[in-house]
# Entry
Amino acid sequence: MAFIDTTELDELRRKMLNFARSQLNDDALAEDTVQEALAGAFKNSDSFNRSSHFRTWVFAILKNKISDALRQRYRQPESESFDDDCKDCGSANDQYFNSNGHWQDEHRPQRWGAADNLVHNEQFWRVFDTCLEVLPADQARAFMMREFVELSSAEICEALELSTSNLHVLLHRARLRLRDCLAKHW
# Structure
């Protein structure tokens, strides 16, 4: 692929590996999945029509490979299980809300202007990636499975051995933390 140099490829591979590790929670499987995605991208590089960024195209391939790996895991459950108890699931996140359930003034969401334009802003995505990396692992994994890999709630609950309510709490807290991080750094 003449349109990407080795430095860019190394950086892309690192980001892909971080993403795959967060989703699969298995270093060897993450390595294999990234390798398969990159091999597929190289093999089918002539089908890359440049209507999107190369990174977006390769990550779409990676998402499909991760989905395949997770679905394979459903069919062959591992002996390891996750703790059903969520550490912070018992109480509401009081730092954001008052006793009536309303936003506290210092945590009230602010308008970002034309949010649709942010999709095409590379600086925004760098900040977003950084914010995502500092999320607690369980929240990041659930968020990425839902929003990036686009698994259903039932699939995520089965993969992580969570109840639906625990999943919703994890997703809610991940979104709050991402919003807070983006508000501070973007």
